[in-house]
Specification:
CATH architecture of the largest domain: Orthogonal Bundle
InterPro entries: Aminopeptidase_N-like_N, Aminopeptidase_N-like_N_sf, M1_APN-typ, Peptidase_M1, Peptidase_M1_aminopeptidases, Peptidase_M1_dom, Peptidase_M4/M1_CTD_sf
Number of strands: 22
Largest sheet: 8 strands, mixed
CATH topology of the largest domain: Neutral Protease, domain 2
Cofactor: Zn(2+)
Organism: Homo sapiens (Human)
GO molecular function: aminopeptidase activity; metallopeptidase activity; zinc ion binding
Helix content: 10-25%
Family: Belongs to the peptidase M1 family.
Strand order of the largest sheet: 5-4-8-2-1-11-14-13
CATH class of the largest domain: Mainly Alpha
Number of domains: 2
Radius of gyration: 22 Å
Number of helices: 9
Shape: globular
Length: about 475
């Protein structure tokens, strides 16, 4: 694609400072881009498709998920045991599911016998599956068990394969994830809506010579009984969180490590042999976490934060809680050859994604209609963070050209849209990852901050994050 072929510094100038790219490039990037890449295009809003959100009669409390990816056949096996709450008696459970084949499913009410599902009705267009049961599931808690298989796809969404070349020249594949906005359902059956939060206990069965990562720290690693070449890696339970923030990576990586002044373990994972190129991002992350903790007056809630460079990655970066994924150009800095604009770019992207650990992950938008709450805010505070951590960059002088004018360019078009857009069907979500949600949203937040003043703005942020932590919020709440 054009961006990969261009020199990084040239690509950034074309993205942010140059004239709008040709229509072909708008088409190429309009659906797949996130973070800064959104500014390539603004898609016209098609006629809205009919859509209903998931019924509220059954909801998850905890997902216990075990996945076993096959890095040669590009498939994976999965076992899900979800602690669920039946709020209204029903004989079916409706979940999100896409490109997954369910083998067996059952529900066991607490203290009662297991009830096996008698049918799986896939609604492929709406990416849902209905599990039908021969008797009524009564109100109360129970355990939903599902065995399933899926594909490590080449679509760069869901649970997918990422090709890389080893230092010796051998082509291999990693298994990685990209779930925002609606692709967790491609990795496991789930209630894949931001407002349906739960905790996660994740296990990965992987080759013993591979690195396995997820949102939380490893709590156990033991040989897999069925194959001496595999190990089972178990991760600690997550906080209450949305499905789109879940992540796991299996591959070969080096890392550099430090601790923030608040005691959080910070690691940057790089391709093998390139650990030196992760040191600048490590410095940025170690400075950024304490800044946000002090600014929001809310501590970072996880014991670790990993930043990892992915070889094949459609987005610019993704703020998975505790395991932030990046394309290599947005994270790695060659200490000898990278220019100052590359360093500033990495600092901004790291600052943006770590801001989401609070504003988006700790407090999450109620529905995709409120996406600008996440992205507009992070696109503004990244500048505040970088200005604090690296005052020599004088980074605010770039806000006007990189964000404000870019937002105005797209806002002047007939197919512009309000910052907040009503979103229904999942197919509509990608259309609002654009410069209106990001850059115009950031410009409005910047005006608000300037009008209110920093002291009262910080107080308001603390009140908002404290009141809605581990919950969901809408624009009106902010």
């Amino acid at each position: 694609m054009w961006l990969a072929a261009a020199a990084p510094s040239l690509a950034r100038r074309l993205l942010f400072l140059g004239p709008p790219p040709p229509p072909l490039l708008l088409l190429v990037f309009s659906r797949s881009s996130r973070r800064r890449l959104h500014s390539l295009g603004l898609a016209a809003m098609p006629e809205k498709r009919p859509f209903e959100r998931l019924p509220a009669d059954v909801s998850p409390i905890n997902y216990s998920l075990c996945l076993k990816p096959d890095l040669l056949d590009f498939t994976f096996e999965g076992k899900l045991e979800a602690a669920a709450q039946v709020r209204q008696a029903t004989n079916q459970i409706v979940m999100n599911c896409a490109d997954i084949d369910i083998i067996t499913a059952s529900y066991a009410p607490e203290g009662d016998e297991e009830i096996h599902a008698t049918g799986f009705n896939y609604q492929n267009e709406d990416e849902k599956v209905t599990l039908s049961f021969p008797s009524t599931l009564q109100t109360g808690t129970g355990t939903l068990k599902i065995d399933f298989v899926g594909e490590l796809n080449d679509k760069m969404k869901g649970f997918y394969r990422s090709k890389y070349t080893t230092p010796s020249g051998e082509v291999r594949y990693a298994a990685v994830t990209q779930f925002e906005a609606t692709d967790a359902r491609r990795a496991f059956p789930c209630w894949d809506e931001p407002a349906i939060k739960a905790t996660f206990d994740i296990s990965l069965v992987v080759p013993k010579d591979r690195v396995a990562l997820s949102n939380m720290n490893v709590i156990d690693r033991k040989p897999y009984p069925d194959d001496e070449n595999l190990v089972e890696v178990k991760f600690a339970r997550t906080p209450v969180m949305s499905t789109y923030l879940v992540a796991f990576v299996v591959g070969e990586y080096d890392f550099v490590e430090t601790r923030s002044k608040d005691g959080v373990c910070v690691r940057v994972y790089t391709p093998v042999g390139k650990a030196e190129q992760g040191k600048f991002a490590l410095e940025v992350a170690a400075k950024t976490l304490p800044f946000y903790k002090d600014y929001f007056n809310v501590p970072y809630p996880l014991p670790k934060i990993d930043l990892i460079a992915i070889a094949d990655f459609a987005a610019g970066a993704m703020e998975n809680w505790g395991l932030v994924t990046y394309r290599e150009t947005a994270l790695l800095i060659d200490p000898k050859n990278s220019c100052s604009s590359s360093r500033q770019w990495v600092a901004l992207v790291v600052g943006h994604e770590l801001a989401h650990q609070w504003f988006g992950n700790l407090v999450t938008m109620e529905w995709w209609t409120h996406l600008w709450l996440n992205e507009g805010f992070a696109s503004w505070i990244e500048y505040l963070c970088v200005d604090h951590c690296f005052p020599e960059y004088d980074i605010w002088t770039q806000f006007v050209s990189a964000d404000y004018t870019r937002a105005q360019e797209l806002d002047a078009l007939d197919n512009s849209h309000p910052i907040e857009v009503s979103v229904g069907h999942p197919s509509e979500v990608d259309e609002i990852f654009d410069a209106i949600s990001y850059s115009k949203g950031a410009s409005v937040i910047r005006m608000l901050h300037d009008y209110i003043g920093d002291k009262d703005f910080k107080k308001g942020m603390n009140m908002y994050l404290t009141k809605f932590q581990q919950k969901n919020a809408a624009t009106g709440n902010l």
